[in-house]
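Weekly modeling sync, notes
Attendees: S.R. (lead), two postdocs, one rotation student

Agenda item 3: backlog of single-chain predictions. S.R. asked that every request posted to the team notebook include the full sequence so nobody has to chase files. The rotation student volunteered to paste the first one in as an example of the format we agreed on. Action items at the bottom.

Example entry:
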Amino acid sequence: MKFGVADYGMNVWSGGLFDVETRLVELKKAGFDGIERLEAATEAQALYNAMTARKLRMNFLTCQAPAATLSLQWSAALQFNYVWLDVNDHSRNLPIEVFCRRANGFVAAAARYGIRAGLHNHLGSRIENQQELLYFMEECPDAMLLLDIGHLHAAGGNCVEVIEKYAERLCAVHFKDVEILNESLGLDRWYERLRFCGLGEGNCAVDYAAAARELMRKNYKNWFLVEHDTHTDEPVKQLKQSLDILKNILA
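Predicted structure, as returned to the notebook:
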């Protein structure tokens, strides 16, 4: 069982990632096994970051490069597990049929590199709610799913049902909680309606414990990724609190 960090919120807190080795060392001390995405602007930076993680016996799972083609190439070259599905336009203005057609093309391209492509469900994106997610999974049968339980719950979805149906197609799972800030706002203003936070800090009954147990029941072998999109205190401390909660659930 491997536990990692999706470190978007750490970058928001600090203003960016300025020292990858320090971040990896701090997260390792907190009990994590790696960071989800290696983000790099150049091939040299990607190699350096990958080397640094290997030296520390830590891992990255995928690569985010300046362009989708480079993300595919670098993820394949570094033998990462998957790549985020990226068809440029993920907006809700794009017809879902067009999105799925483009997604199938990206998935096929990833397969030619010998890697899998995973969709990350996200509020405000083309695949936001459970109905859209189920449609996508049927129309794109070779795609993997990078399931974010916080985003799906906030869109009214049932994470346990999705895990039960698609456990074998999960490349990783993001664990987070949700705090509703202004219930009068709709999902078109989700960034004002709510914030994503640490496990146990939410107020809208995200059943992350049931999701974790369902993953265990389905013999899930991939990574559990803790993500706090927003931090209110030192990020590593808060991430460790969520990690401890998650490990206790899975014990």
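Discussion: group reviewed the output briefly. The first helix runs from residue 8 to 14.
Action items: rotation student to repeat for the remaining queue; S.R. to check formatting next week.
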